[in-house]
Amino acid sequence: MTDSQLVARAQEGDIPAFEELVKKYQREIYGLAYRLVLDAEEAKDLAQQAFLQAFVHIRSFRQQAQFRTWLFRIAINQCYSYLKSKKKFGEPVDPEEFVTVGEESPEEDLVTKDRRQRLYIALERLPAKQRAVITLKLEQGLSYEEIARVLGGTTGAARVNYCQALKTLKKYLQNEDEHEVAVRSYPKVVARISRR
Amino acid sequence: MKWRCALIQRWLPAYLDGDLPSFWRARLGSHLQGCPACREELAGLREVVRIVQAAATPDQGPAFWQTFHQELHLKLAQNAPAPEPSRFLKLPYYLVGAPALATLVFWAFTHLGQPPQKPLLTAMVGPEQVVYAGMEDGAWQNDEYPSWDVDAVMADLTHQERQAVLQNVRY
Ligand SMILES: [Zn+2]
Fold it and tell me: Same domain for A147 and A190?
């Protein structure tokens, strides 16, 4: 069944039809939330919350629009609200937990683990919107036009945003001194990544 | 760095993915041919893209997704939106006003002998003043708001519904 057929059924309150859509997009939505909040447990809650919001508001969805980008938009808004509230209330830090995502998988060697860890620390330093733009472009493979539809603004602004984000990420990743500073000043992300 | 290189390097990430207007693509391409510094910058960016794509979020496995679905299913069941109002139940939103108004105008027309100068509803209620029930809470989609065109509404009804409408406005 196509997305629009499933959406039409979900708009009639058909939960199994909506759950088909969930299965189709769960990995992307979870991955997006994970990249934005860098916390596996929170990403799961936020992904569920995004699907729930989408279901509750499914009747306001226009069939001309793309369901996938509509869903991304909802998920990103959920993550932004979470990040905003976290900023407001702060978060306890436990620098003792210094483990990265993927540690449990034995096939992942130390070099890969180190690279992944450095990437997450660098991503944490980017503003949330730049993190979103990088994820949408490089992981979800969206065009600038689609990114603009998800994040708002024009196609040109999405392109500028992505260019800036990638250049900044490169700076954070490649400069070894910056890396050292990052490890010292951003133990939070490492702590959170470990709670997987 | 030369000012020209600074300008070129601003757009290198978009040059990499090819999603750049053709004028810029050509300009960057010819600059890169003659500029080792910008070529190096481009190679660095390509490596960053590779790192990000190689570190995709690891798949959580079937047990994770099973729990995910079970928890979500409960939330969906608890928050299922109320069923769409049936066609017949939608009637009162516009029937309250439109046919009663039509009768009133007809009465005015026959008794006062003056045809209304403006179309029925705009004469009495500016369109911007009309607020539809359910408009705020998203019960209707924009293109579904009940029509105020009485003829169109009546033509759209089944025989049974039309009888019910006439029954309601008769006095
Ligand atoms: Zn150059």
Answer: yes
Query: Range of A76's domain?
Result: 1-91
Same domain, A66 and A149: no
Nearest Cα residue in chain A from B14: A163
**Alpha-carbon dihedral sign for residues B149, B152, B158, B159:** positive
| Under-50 pLDDT residues of chain B | 115-150, 152-153, 171
- Nearest Cα residue in chain B from A18: B76
Q: Are A174 and B44 in contact (CB under 8 A)?
A: yes
Chain segment A105-141, per-residue pLDDT in tens:
555 677 777 778 888 889 989 999 999 999 999 999 9
Indicate the residue among A32, A64, A91 that finishes a domain.
A91
Residue A83 domain-assigned? yes
Residues of B in contact with A162 (CB under 8 A): 13-14
User: Are A142 and A62 in a shared domain?
Assistant: no
ipTM value, please give it: 0.78
Instruction: Tell me which of A52, A138, A161 to substitute to probe the interface with B (most B C-beta atoms closer than 10 Å).
Output: A138
Whether A75 has its CB under 8 Å from any CB of chain B: the answer is no
3-state SS of A67-129 is HHHHHHHHHHHHHHHHHHHHHHHCCCCCCCCCCCCCCCCCCCCHHHHHHHHHHHHHHHHCCHH
The reply to whether A56 touches chain B by the CB within 8 Å rule is: yes
> Does the pLDDT of residue A57 top 70, yes or no?
yes
Q: Considering its fold, how many domains does chain A have in total?
A: 2
In chain B, whose CA is at the least distance from the CA of A135? B52
The reported pLDDT for the residue numbered B49 is 95
Whether A116 is in a domain gets the answer: no
